[in-house]
Amino acid sequence: MYIVGIDLGGTFFKVGLVDAKDGKIVRKIERETKVYEGRIKVVERMAQAVLEITEGFEYTGIGVGSPGSIDHDKGIVRFSPNFPDWVDFELGGELSSLLNKPVYVENDANAFVLGEKWFGAGKGHEHIVALTLGTGVGGGVISHGVLITGKDGIGTELGHVIVEPNGPLCGCGNYGCLEALASATAIKRMALEGQRKFPESEIFKAEEVSAKVVFDAAKNGDLLAQTIVNRVVNALAIGVTNFIHIFNPSIVVIGGGVSRAGDILFKPLREKVERLVMPSFKGTYEIVQSPLVEDAGILGAASIVLQRSMNQQ
Known about the structure:
This protein is an alpha/beta fold and 313 residues long. The protein has helices at residues 39-54, 91-99, 108-119, 179-182, 184-193, 211-219, 223-247, 263-276, 296-312, and strands spanning 2-8, 12-19, 25-32, 62-66, 69-71, 76-79, 103-107, 128-133, 137-143, 146-147, 251-255, 286-289. The longest helix is centred in the C-terminal third of the chain and has 25 residues, at 223-247.
């Protein structure tokens, strides 16, 4: 059985044809989103991409992982910051009418946790917390095998848990959110803020300041980089500890570009969370790096189809 996953982003979207048995991506392509051309043109380009990759294959449905507030029951994008005219937009219905296939739409962070459940580190787990650390911080939660979305379908905004009261201003308007301290955007901001005090830092010898540059410099003993990484780990440890106390997951999966830092991030994170959790929670969870890497978006979107099919049985 084949399914299609669409990872919708503000700059590019990726479409993959996925074998539902093993999560193997048989074909995939990437296209520019071109939001400025308007939502109908974007949907038409998405439909054309689906037709290209599914030529010669039978598939059962399409999942779309979209940023923003999503009414997943109706396939409607209620609001998405990077898509100005996508207010109460029936994305699922528009795409379905072009392709004559069922289309399921879900918030991209929720799609991420579904991808981990079906094809990633969460396979075989019924209680999962997943965090994706990229431009922002997204999160999703599965409890008893069910995706938690809340009353209006917009719950589990894990990136907007406040972990540093009076901390940096977040894009959401609050101060000290996890996203304002542990995203790639936040790491770059903290580095640039430290430039005046640490002008000789290894960070500023790179062509462009990025989260990867900061972590690489920290591995080499750079003081500014190590200070930033320590702040990131502290913020993440507080957030993850809270999520463990609230949701009691058997696994916490961390993905996104920042997660590729590896041991310099995960080793101190595991140690700090172990110190922070209540005694009754010790040994009840594991914290792991997502194995899905570049394909997390496509596999997460495809997983929406599998999850909906299971829910309808």
